[in-house]
Write a structure and sequence with these properties.
By secondary structure, the chain is α/β, with parallel strands linked by helices. About 40% of the residues lie in helices and about 15% in strands.
Length: about 475
């Protein structure tokens, strides 16, 4: 039985301050296929710089910590395939998609505190080139840049980069592990902190002997160096990662400073969080030095009834073909051969049966219902595979607080259904309720600091991070 002192200690324990990222993509249809033509939505203007600077300013003023920008290097072409992009064309379902990095300097110039997390692949990009690009943008964004490390998963991407099929899953992570060694050497070990002096009287920009090659010779990469860019405010950009496979968890536990984890139930996400933190300890890292985010789609309004009505109205704009195309890309399974009323939990295809069984046992409100193609379309049309929270500010924040406690996550990647629209609703309804409960910052603690300072209080890699060991100290 808990003592009165235990109860008092719990009451005085400071509440976890949640971290919020806006989850976006430089495409007409990110996770809600077909919603690009909703009257509130303007994501068809994704190719205009003003669209992105306006969004960044909204998020910055609204209190969001970061804009987390997804990316993909191939089309979702499995459905009605092979190699068929036609099902995604009406809905703009992650196709077309622009490179996310190019908008960041302009968005950074238009904001004070917002962090920009940009997805880039270790499978199809040379580490020397990627290191230069992120150093460049870290300079221009004055340290407010993060790299979401991915190994890529689409056959369509592999084919367009000259391969017949994808590199095997765990092999991609082995490549990525060496890739990180290369970029750490470039970012941390090639230029000493005192290399750049900018002495205008002597006409000396940098000092000889304080810039060196890295001489990397590995199984997958040979990079002599030196790094072609001078050290940026963070040197190594803040590091995000996503992946819950054994190889993905090991990689994240070793390299990531923040990890994105998905799941329909907080109890299941908690298992992945615990595994990540346990693995981090095995790598000699403090588990608290990895922030964990999970993805959620929020539909919020003044009351539960208004929010449910809003959800139904949004759902009416969903695109069936786009949803099934996304399913094909995410799972590698083409549902076009199955009839509309077939219960997919009973089909003679183990991969589909297993996935649908998992959904049927974890997606709230679907107990006892048939998982037909129509139900999959309904499930995926609003927020993709993310859990959905629909309700009043109290209902939404109750659920966010429950997720935070049960799953032990530090924050949320919040997807939009319409943009403008979804993020404005979150700023109007959700963030004030979070603040009222003491769960969210009233304002940025310090203005204009780097991404790593926001999360960990210092601009450079923490001492227990493997990249820190490459640092070239001033002797």
């Amino acid at each position: 039985m808990a003592s009165s002192s235990d109860t008092s200690a719990d009451a005085q324990k400071p509440k976890k301050q949640l971290l919020l990222n806006a989850f976006v993509m430089t495409t007409p249809g990110h996770l809600s296929p077909g919603l690009w033509h909703h009257p509130r939505n303007k994501t068809d203007e994704y190719k205009k710089l003003s669209f992105w600077t306006s969004l960044a300013q909204l998020l910055d003023k609204g209190g969001f910590h970061a804009m987390f920008i997804a990316d993909t290097l191939g089309a979702y072409d499995v459905y009605k395939g092979p190699a068929n992009v036609e099902p995604v064309l009406n809905s703009g379902a992650q196709f077309p998609v622009n490179d996310p990095l190019y908008t960041v300097p302009a968005m950074a110039a238009a904001t004070k505190n917002l962090i920009f997390g940009v997805t880039a692949s270790t499978t199809y990009d040379a580490p020397y080139a990627l290191a230069r690009r992120f150093s460049t943008v870290d300079h221009l964004a004055e340290g407010r840049i993060a790299w979401n490390i991915v190994t890529s998963y689409l056959d369509s991407a592999a084919r367009n980069f000259g391969l017949e099929t994808q590199i095997e899953h765990d092999e991609r992570y082995r490549i990525a592990d060496e890739y990180m060694d290369v970029v750490y050497k470039l970012w941390e070990s090639s230029w000493r902190d005192d290399a750049v002096v900018r002495d205008r009287e002597k006409g000396q920009f940098a000092v000889a002997g304080r810039v060196r090659p890295i001489g990397h010779k590995g199984k997958y990469f040979q990079v002599p160096g030196p790094h072609i860019s001078e050290p940026s405010p963070q040197r190594t950009p803040f590091l995000f990662q996503a992946g819950t496979s054994k190889a993905g968890t090991d990689f994240g536990a070793k390299h990531a400073e923040a990890v994105f984890m998905g799941g329909q139930l907080p109890e299941l996400v908690r298992k992945s969080v615990d595994a990540l933190r346990s693995t981090a300890r095995q790598f000699g890292r403090d588990p608290s030095h990895i922030k964990v985010f999970t993805g959620v789609t929020i539909i919020v309004d003044e009351t539960d009834e208004k929010a449910q009505a809003k959800y139904k109205e949004l759902l009416s704009y969903g695109d069936r073909e786009g949803a099934l195309a996304l399913f094909g890309g995410w799972t590698g399974n083409d549902l076009s051969a199955f009839s509309d009323d077939e219960d997919l939990i009973l089909v003679d295809k183990p991969a589909i049966r297993s996935l649908i069984h998992r959904w049927s046992s974890t997606v709230p409100g679907t107990e006892g219902l048939k998982w037909t193609k129509a139900r999959i379309v309904e499930f995926l049309s609003i927020g993709g595979m993310m859990p959905k929270i629909v309700g009043s500010p109290k209902t939404v924040v109750d659920e966010l607080e429950r997720w935070s406690e049960v799953a032990d996550v530090d924050g949320f990647n919040l997807a939009h259904v319409v943009n403008p629209g979804s993020f404005e609703d979150i700023i109007e309804f959700v963030i004030p309720e979070l603040r009222r409960r003491g769960l969210f910052r009233a304002e940025a603690e310090r203005e204009g600091v780097t991404a790593r300072e926001v999360f960990f209080g210092q601009p450079h890699l923490l001492s227990d991070h493997p990249g820190h060991s490459y640092k070239w100290p001033i002797s």
